[in-house]
Amino acid sequence: MTTTAQPEPQIAPAGLSGVVVAETDIGDVRGTEGFFHYRQYDATELARQVSFEEVWHLMVRGHLPTRDELARWQSLIAENAVLPKELADDLVEVMRRSARDDPLVALRTTVSALGALRGDRPLWDLDAEEKETAAIRTAAVVPWLVSAAYRVRRGEAVRDPRPELGVVGSYLWMLTGEEATQDHQDALSRYLCLTIDHGFNASTFTARVVASTGADLSACVVAGIGALSGPLHGGAPSRALDALDEIGTVENAAPWARAQLAAGQRVMGFGHAVYRGLDPRSELLRETAVGLGGATAELAVQVEKEVVRVLDEAKPDRPLRANVEYYAGVVMQSCGVPREMFTPTFAVSRVIGWTAHILEQSRGRKIYRPSSAYAGPVAPQQVPEIDAR
Question: Cα separation of 130 and 121, whole Å?
């Protein structure tokens, strides 16, 4: 009897760079072009022209809403943004017990608790309408969960949502206790729209892997939050702003950048895993930051030029430009978002993308099960007696 030799598995590049693992109708990132889109629309143009709620509708239902559809959609979001008092009280108690935790950690914990208290069922057992309902009601409450965790941590009273202000206005109200100006609402809406989705990034891919198992929607979102908590993913905006604080003046920018490179450190806020030039999100956020004004925005623009000059000298074959995180912190700080809330605010938008991908993934029936290439000691070997170990 003859046997056919199995082909040697091909080892994927580090980080799965360039590996296509699925088809999607949700959007794409074309890194060499400096372009990304949601469905058939340029994502930066959406951020300029339409509301956060409209982009949310596009992501979940596949098309931009008509005027009547938007009104119904806003009502649906508003209904789900306000939790029953007993459930809200239970979640606040969970927050109090972990009040010292980072707000993103608290979000991870409370989304898990929310799923348990609501009795979330596996996606595998739900029909399409039930899945969408689970997606909307989870994403709609994230702004409240995030702001409540922040306020509990500070020993302050939790504020209820104000749906009449819209998702962005309500979030800023719950976080700061003040009604945001229209300029601040528009600026934060731009940021949130720009960060709803961005291809198969680490958190989105993680959420899809869990969705492929048929798990409940909350479990998939919790997995995404876990991936987002890493400093190489969602943690970068605050670190980029920390770097601006460390630099202080434009004269220090070039020496600081050279010192970072000499120490083998990443220059936070510059370079991207996909883009090989300008990050279109950074361009729009730079414009937004400058429009809001202030010393930090002015410094950020000057420092960007100096850092890019140093990076071009050090890495002439690979242009490293400001990414979305560089100006994200400047914009959020200008809108009144505390620095510790930058990544949780990122989650307010990215949960929309996660839920869209979770819904798409759940329509398939195949679990993710990649292979690995074993690189340990040769096997099998005889198990040694205990005295010989």
Answer: 10
Residues 6+ apart with CB under 8 A from 160: 82, 144, 174
Are 101 and 221 contained in the same domain?
Answer: yes
The residues, any chain, with a CB within 8 Å of residue 136's CB and separated by 6 or more, are 60, 76, 77, 80, 355
Q: DSSP state, 367?
A: -
Angle between helices 253-262 and 295-314 (to 10 degrees): 50
Domain that holds residue 291: 236-334
3-state secondary structure of 322: strand
d(C-alpha 157, C-alpha 127), whole Å: 39
Which alpha helices (DSSP H) does the chain contain, by range? Answer: 43-49, 52-61, 67-81, 85-97, 103-118, 128-153, 166-176, 182-194, 202-211, 217-228, 236-247, 253-262, 280-292, 295-314, 324-334, 342-362
pLDDT, tens digit (0-9, with 9 covering 90-100), for 94-148: 999 876 678 888 999 999 999 999 999 999 999 999 999 999 999 999 999 999 9
User: What is the pLDDT averaged over residues 32-44?
Assistant: 94
Alpha-carbon radius of gyration of the chain: 23
* Distance from the Cα of residue 159 to its chain's centroid: 24
Of 318, 334, 350, which closes a domain?
Answer: 334
Q: Name the pTM for this structure.
A: 0.92
* CATH number, domain with residue 345: 1.10.580.10
153 with 211, same domain?
yes
Output b/e per residue, 148-177; b: 16+ Cβ within 10 A.
bbbbbbeeeebbebbbebbbbbbbbbbbbe
217 and 70 together in one domain: yes
29 phi and psi angles, rounded to 5 deg: -120, 120
What does residue 20 show for φ and ψ, rounded to 5 degrees? Answer: -90, 120
Looking at the structure, tell me whether residues 244 and 96 fall in a common domain.
no
Catalytic residues: 272, 325
For residue range 157-174, list pLDDT tens digits in order: 999 999 999 999 999 999
Inter-residue contact 133 to 60 (CB < 8 Å): no
How is 288-303 classified by DSSP, letter by letter? HHHHH--HHHHHHHHH
pLDDT average, residue stretch 247-263: 93
